[in-house]
Amino acid sequence: QVQLVESGGGLVQAGGSLRLSCAASGRTFSNYAMGWFRQAPGKEREFVAAITRRGDSTDYADSVKGRFTISKDNAKNAVYLQMNSLKPEDTAVYYCAANNVPGLLTTAKYAYWGQGTQVTVSS
Predict the structure, then answer these.
(1) What secondary structure does DSSP assign to 23-38, as a single string?
(2) Helix/strand/coil for 11
(3) What is the pLDDT of residues 44-57, one digit of tens each?
(4) In the predicted model, what is the mean pLDDT of the chain?
(5) Is it the case that residue 100 has pLDDT exceeding 90?
(6) Farthest CA pair distance, the chain
């Protein structure tokens, strides 16, 4: 089992920045590829960013490329999502997810999920 706890969400004006954190506990964190997803009201959960277990490769949704950066610190058992130039359409609950796979995982086929953190971007 892997337990994931997100933090860092909040209310920010358009153009601002937030840094989300996801703290992991349980199994060996360095074995897990990680991802960030988001779900806006009335919409399906969507992929945001993914990183390999070693942190040596990343992928992003087109809607966030150039604005968001995912990073992984295996020594701290944490994954981060730096979000810059935020837009009102980024408003959603953001979830981190983990799976014991060797590559990038950009679909929702993750084994473990956090409870989510709310991000609200005002115009």
Answers:
(1) EEEES-GGG-EEEEEE
(2) strand
(3) 999 999 999 999 99
(4) 96
(5) yes
(6) 41
